[in-house]
Design goal:
Blueprint lengths: L2 E4 L4 H5 L4 E3 L3 E5 L7 E5 L5 E7 L5 E7 L7 H17 L6 E6 L8 E6 L2 E6 L2 H5 L1 H11 L5 E3 L3 H7 L12 E5 L2 E5 L14 H10 L4 E5 L5 H8 L4 E6 L2 H13 L6 E5 L2 H10 L4 E6 L11 H17 L1 E11 L6 H15 L4 E7 L17 E6 L3
Parallel strand pairs: 1-4, 9-10, 13-14, 13-16, 14-15, 16-17
Antiparallel strand pairs: 1-3, 2-6, 4-5, 5-6, 7-8, 8-9, 11-12, 17-19, 18-19
Helix pairs in contact: 2-4, 6-7, 9-10, 10-11
The protein binds S-adenosyl-L-homocysteine (SAH).
Amino acid sequence: MATLILKRGAERRIRAGHPWVYRGEVADLRGAWSAGAAVDVADATGRFLGRGFYSPRSTLVCRLVTRADEPVDATLIHRRLETALHHRRTAGLDAAAYRLCWSEADGLPGLVVDRYGPVSVVQCLTLGMARHVEWVRQALERLFPGQELLRIDDPTAARIEGFDPVRDSREAALTIEEGAGRFVVSLGAGHKTGLYLDQRDNRLLAATLARGRRVLDTFCYAGGFACHALLGGASSALLIDSSADALAQARRNLEANGVHAGAKLHEGNAFDALRELDARHERFGLVILDPPPFTRHKTAVEAATRGYKEINLRALRLLEPGGLLLTFSCSHHITPALFEDICRQSAGDAGLRPRLLSTLTQSRDHPVLLPIPETRYLTGLLLQSTE
Ligand code: SAH
């Protein structure tokens, strides 16, 4: 097996519990290697630190899968997935649809596994995982004998890592129950692995906030927030998304929940729509802002900040007195502290002094590992307008 020898000092982060090795931290690659195969990682003195898959094309050339001197194989992947399942089951997180494996947070960097009823959806995010997906398949077969498995890779990750993304799809739609709601999911046809599972807890929260309120669900995708709000007693909901496909899914879900009569759908750019609603002096009792990541890179944080600032300013202006804003960012680079600061600036610019009712994050089946801040990416606030 080949060994990545790190530069002096580069082992510090790894010793502190973080699994990543950047290309610039590597002093030498010794021995015969092949792209995507396991390599040892050692410090400058040659001391063994761990083992992971080698990704020569990526700036993240290796992410440790183990810190022990053990084979990286189907047995190891099975053990990790078994632990992940045990955690979900004992914490009561194994809902109708849930994330079974969240990459680094579950000790399997580059692997996401979501469960939709009896179906496992596998997403490979590194070359090594894509090369060894058969081990994942074997491990899942042991955990869920005879059950279906689909693979739905993320094309962006595949491009960075240098493999061809696989996108399976499932002909028959599944209906997934979530709290009082139900969602029709066509696996392989939409975003993510099917649903934005990371927002589950926050959608359930929206249901408890909505009674009697007029709701605006911006960046609504499949309408999850609006469905829950209407089921929770909202008086009406306006759903906005720039994608006709997303709105078609939203319509299907509103109908599946029997709440379509109270809903209106609008196809368009949320930035423009928010401005137009304000110009018409429309006001809402609950506004949801759940945009796509405005940045995937550190370098674009400033531009992203401007985007978040603008939509939050506009959304705050649309609140009636006592109105609620559920606002989110799903860019890892926008930390909770920065996001709060952005919203503070939005409020300041709008001349408003909203109350901060709670800080929010991703659902608990997407665990955060303390030494790996990247495992937390979703941050949110629940704000309330004051007089
Ligand atoms: N709230 C959803 C997930 C939202 S994903 C849920 O819980 O399921 C983000 C959505 O924003 C996508 O559906 C995408 O089509 C939409 N979108 C992206 N840019 C947009 C824009 N400028 N205006 C309106 N919608 C946009």
